[in-house]
Amino acid sequence: MNHLSKTSHLARGLIAATAVVFSFTGLAFAEVNIYSYRQPDLMAPLLAAFTASTGIETNIIFAQKGLEDRIHAEGRNSPADVLLTTDIGKLGQAKKLGIAAEITSPAILKVVPAAFRDADNQWVGLSMRARVVYASQQRVAVDDLSYADLADPKWAGRICTRSGQHSYNIGLIASQIVRHGVETTENWLAGVRDNLSRRPTGNDRAQVKAIFSGECDLALGNTYYMGLMQTNEKDPDQRLWAESVKLIFPDKSTVGTHVNLSGMVLAKNAPHLEDATKFMEFLVGKEAQRLYAELNFEYPVRTDVAVSDRVQSWGHLNPDSLSLSEIAATRRAASLLVDRINFDGGPQ
Ligand SMILES: [Fe+2]
């Protein structure tokens, strides 16, 4: 079930049914309805700051999947104003389903670089996460690698990763297709597959655990997992996994490291267009940008907002400047490629 939290005084007006329905008392008041893939506890401080500074209340529902489909199914009666996502796959899907309005606010477009926005401004990025290499402190001497290096036979039996079909790997593979074309990327990916120490399995953190336990020496993973492991109170073992690795930012001194985006969509049928726009403008403001990125150990999309000390300690991010919009549009080609070479079958 979706987690539902209501920050406005109309909490009692909410009706939960097969779909959650935001209800209205007939009184006109300022509010924004947010459908979110971001965890409510990550969003809470930001929502409180937004309400404190604008007087606009927020209603948020959270789910791990299906929010774009839900807005699409709700159609013209959808209560959704803003969709918050954590991956370009879902941003691209919102556009494809036709549920996204063009974002026209100059206050937003002026501060978010074009590479981190949809070509038609149907979504705007809020924070970046880099897809980096986690490398064994003990067994990997190098501090610099390219994505291309991962196909070098010298790493045979030493690389592990989650499924090639996971959206994080699809984003990376799509970026390689945009840059090098399908054929070169196919050869590269087959080389990576043949260097795997095992069939792709588990999530990003499970790969770091595998490095810790000696199963492999290099793994693909998103940067923020380093922060989530380093500060893990519930599972202190994860701190040991994190201590066993260093982060290598592939291609850092050439074309830059692949990044994915968390971002926002303005719903085409947003019932509170004006307040929704204020909320989105708030999220790209300097203070919210700092907070939004810091809460999940990410990088602000604004170039004039500094990253947190912890994130900075992992090394400097030089983000690949390929258009994320173009990468999102290439995801299907990447997915077909992963299947064609049976990447998830492991070394062949
Ligand atoms: Fe993640």
Summed up, the helix count is 14
Strand content: 15-25%
Distance between the termini: 41 Å
Residue runs with pLDDT of under 50 for 5 or more positions: 1-21
- Percentage of helical residues? 25-40%
Bound molecules: fe (ii) ion
- Main beta sheet strand tally, sense and closure: 10 strands, mixed
Principal-axis shape: globular
Number of strand elements: 12
Which structural class do the helices and strands define? alpha+beta
What average pLDDT do the residues reach? 92
Nearest-angstrom radius of gyration? 21 Å
Strand and helix order = EEEEHEHEHHEEHHHEHHEEHHEHHH
Short description:
Helix content is 37%, strand content 17%. The strands form two sheets. Strands 1, 4, 5, 6, 7, 8, 9, 10, 11 and 12 form a ten-stranded mixed sheet that branches.
Molecular structure report:
The protein is 37% helix and 17% strand. The chain is α+β, with helices and mostly antiparallel strands. It is globular, with a radius of gyration of 21 Å. Strand 2 and strand 3 form a beta hairpin. Helix 5 packs across helix 14. Strands 1, 4, 5, 6, 7, 8, 9, 10, 11 and 12 form a ten-stranded mixed β-sheet that branches. It has a two-stranded antiparallel ribbon with strand order 2-3. It is built from 14 helices and twelve strands.
List keywords for this structure.
alpha+beta, 14 helices, disordered N terminus, binds fe (ii) ion, ten-stranded mixed β-sheet, 348 residues, two-stranded antiparallel ribbon, 37% helix
Outline the secondary-structure elements.
Blueprint: E1 3-6, E2 15-16, E3 20-21, E4 31-36, H1 40-54, E5 57-62, H2 67-74, E6 82-85, H3 88-96, H4 106-109, E7 124-136, E8 159-160, H5 167-180, H6 182-194, H7 204-212, E9 218-222, H8 224-230, H9 237-243, E10 245-248, E11 259-266, H10 273-283, H11 286-295, E12 299-300, H12 309-313, H13 324-329, H14 331-340
Parallel strand pairs: 4-5, 4-6, 8-9
Antiparallel strand pairs: 1-5, 2-3, 6-11, 7-9, 7-10, 7-11, 7-12
Helix pairs in contact: 1-11, 5-6, 5-14, 7-9
The structure holds fe (ii) ion (FE2).
